[in-house]
Hints:
The protein is α/β, with parallel strands linked by helices.
Amino acid sequence: xxxxxxxxxxxxxxxxxxxxxxxxxxxxxxxxxxxxxxxxxxxxxxxxxxxxxxxxxxxxxxxxxxxxxxxxxxxxxxxxxxxxxxxxxxxxxxxxxxxxxxxxxxxxxxxxxxxxxxxxxxxxxxxxxxxxxxxxxxxxxxxxxxxxxxxxxxxxxxxxxxxxxxxxxxxxxxxxxxxxxxxxxxxxxxxxxxxxxxxxxxxxxxxxxxxxxxxxxxxxxxxxxxxxxxxxxxxxxxxxxxxxxxxxxxxxxxxxxxxxxxxxxxxxxxxxxxxxxxxxxxxxxxxxxxxxxxxxxxxxxxxxxxxxxxxxxxxxxxxxxxxxxxxx
Length: 328
């Protein structure tokens, strides 16, 4: 007796039940998937239509393992454009909420190149043609290959996010760096002008920081920078942007904040710094002092002019005395 292809096929076991969403209005497609998956020997699966875009099920349910997208469009079907748009919106939401979910394009008949290309453009990592000649091993192989590809893509995306974070972050303090500041100040300026909202900038540097490094060493200097960073975080709001833009120079972007509000923030920072004392090697206590310059956006300001006015204010505050703030 010759074994049939089904009896020769040993399906893979998966770590959990495969939850499968189907992006299709075609009940025949859903029925065909149920039958094909049953024949494939996938041990545990749950197939259902993806929730409507506005449904609360998107966040309440367990994320799908796989999303199967119906990419078969009948020629001359006037609803084809609307269907493509709906698929694209649904998949965009899936990608945002469930970045590790695998997407596979599906057709009921032999797929033409345009259907496969459409699936690829939507981000699908595999394709299934649910024809009568489809072998159980074909389904299992496609599921495995698509899920493996998605796992690699997810890993690459996570690595890209890590690299992006590193490129925008100061390694010592954990604050944003100058590169991020240069982008953010332009973004805030554009948004503030567009919505008619105030924007203020505080530039701060540590008084006598070079002497601290020379006298007590760079390890204590690093500690001073980190303690100041924590003080700035405690003194600011969630919407504020805090950056280390130079050696001992920091910048605070304060959206929806006028000059009086910025002065309040500066005073809050000063009070926290007055309470902060760091232990040094000779048994003494080191007080951190800082000077600040404040500038509030004017109608004709660009990033350079706003920064320049805050920098000028910082210069004048350092001339006056230590631990002061000046505004322009």
